[in-house]
Fold:
Amino acid sequence: NKKAFVELLFWKSPAIVCEMTKGYSSLQEGEGTTRSRVPPWTPQEEQELRELYWKYKEVEGGDILAAILAHLPAPGRTRRQVVKQLVRM
Structure:
């Protein structure tokens, strides 16, 4: 690759460096990156999150995220994951 030197100018994670040396698309899905370790949101989870948000957004004096996390059926979700998903939606 004649333009590989340009890639060396930017910060790389170990997974990206491995991919550069072994060839692109060499990583199997679910390996190496942080994003792939987080389970994706299913449409049912997104719908439940949307409903919980609309239910608890008008409650005054309370933490909306704490209420959503308490009633979210998927117990493995963190506060940060819920915030990122709400912003994305």
